[in-house]
Amino acid sequence: MKHLILTTALVLSAPAAFACETVTVGDLTIQHAWSKASIGVDRPAVFYVEITNSGSSDDALVGISTPAAGMPMLHETVVTDGIASMPHAMSVPVPAGQTVQLAPGGYHGMLMGLTAALKEGDRFPVTLTFEKAGAVTANVDVLPLRSEGPDCADAGQ
Amino acid sequence: MRGRRAVILGLGGAAGAVAFMLGLGAWRTRNRPAANAVLPLPVSNMGWQLTDHRGQTVRPTDWLGRPVMAFFGFTWCPDVCPTTLSAISGWLEELGAEADRLTVALISVDPERDTPDVLADYVGNFDPRIVGLTGPEAQVARAAEDFRVTYRKVPRDDGDYTMDHTAGVFLFYADGRFASIIDFHEDRRFALPRIRRTLN
Ligand SMILES: [Cu+2]
After folding, report:
1. Global confidence as pTM
2. Between B25 and B101, whose confidence is greater?
3. How many H-runs (helices) and E-runs (strands) does chain A carry?
């Protein structure tokens, strides 16, 4: 019985394995890298991630690149007087001692010019470039379009 | 001493009440026209005609008799719209069969790309009770006007375009009266009781 429960838990958590993986560069920890399934290649897709700066100096995410999209870009969803827009973000601040999220309704990677449709269960790499820490590559899990984030045991959201 | 304080408090309270009533009066006078310009029309006064994702014609009169939850969006929208649709799907699931009495609609602000078939592909990813609506640009504009909603086309860096649009979720009672708006960044826990209020 115990074995069965364990197996079930493993099966359930398997699809989110990569999103729950952690990569580090300098004082930065990157985890919960995920995206949503796309309908075809014409629509822009998204990239979400969580970055923790355990160091004592501020850093900033200044760019993203990925073989999955011809034109990846940092955006921020802003709601002004009830109207949502998503201007280009030159950088996403990652202050010392803080955790910053690219998450639904806020900062996001906007993946324009998809090279292939993103299907649930797919994985693709995204390289994040930080002002000070440099570049690091994270594996991104494609979750259903309906998903609100990866289901990690340690998920901070 | 205690008596005197009570009198002072009483006077203060009365003065406060008068000030409040005066203030309220002023607020009412000042804001009456503005409030009407901002709040959506009752469904019974709306005048649009759209097509749903199954190809059926839908008019505001078709909505009367059932509470309505409606919002504006478009299927090329990567962040705000799927986030809203996920939230709505979650609310509908929590309400269960109770939500079967609710009309739930996504009205496209991008009819150029969102044909009924495109909408069908899109809403199919969410709760099956969500209906996608689109139509000629003039009818979408009319719906936006009736809801007091804003939308505009914004060119994107890659030559494509995106849409800025009002992101709130509108609630109406079964008789068509406007109930409230669930703002995009509002705490989700407050949404359910407000949806329930339109159901009862
Ligand atoms: Cu964006």
Report:
1. 0.83
2. B101
3. 1, 12
- E strand or H helix at A10: helix A2-13
Residue A106: pLDDT band with limits 50, 70, 90: very high
Domain span at residue B163 reads 43-199
Ligand 1 centroid to B122 CA: how many Å? 18
Token couple for B7:
């009198």
Do B3 and B53 fall within a single domain? Answer: no
Q: Is the pLDDT of residue A13 over 80?
A: no
pLDDT score of A154: 57
Say how many domains are in chain B: 2
In chain B, the N- to C-terminal Cα span, in Å, equals 51
For residues B124 and B59, membership in a common domain is answered with yes
Each residue's pLDDT tens digit, A62-89? 999 999 999 999 999 999 999 999 999 9
Residue A94 belongs to domain with CATH number: 2.60.40.1890
User: Taking the mean position of all CA atoms in its chain, how far away is CA A72?
Assistant: 12
Look at chain A and report how many structural domains it folds into. 1
Residues 71-100 of A with CB under 8 A from B: 71, 73, 75, 77, 79, 82-86, 88
Tell how strand B103-108 and strand B68-73 pair up. Answer: parallel
B3 within domain boundaries: yes
Helices (H), chain B: 2-38, 60-63, 80-95, 116-123, 137-147, 191-199
Among the partner residues A43, A75, A113, nearest to B76 by beta-carbon distance = A43
Q: How far is CA B164 from CA A77, B19, B36, in A?
A: 10, 41, 23
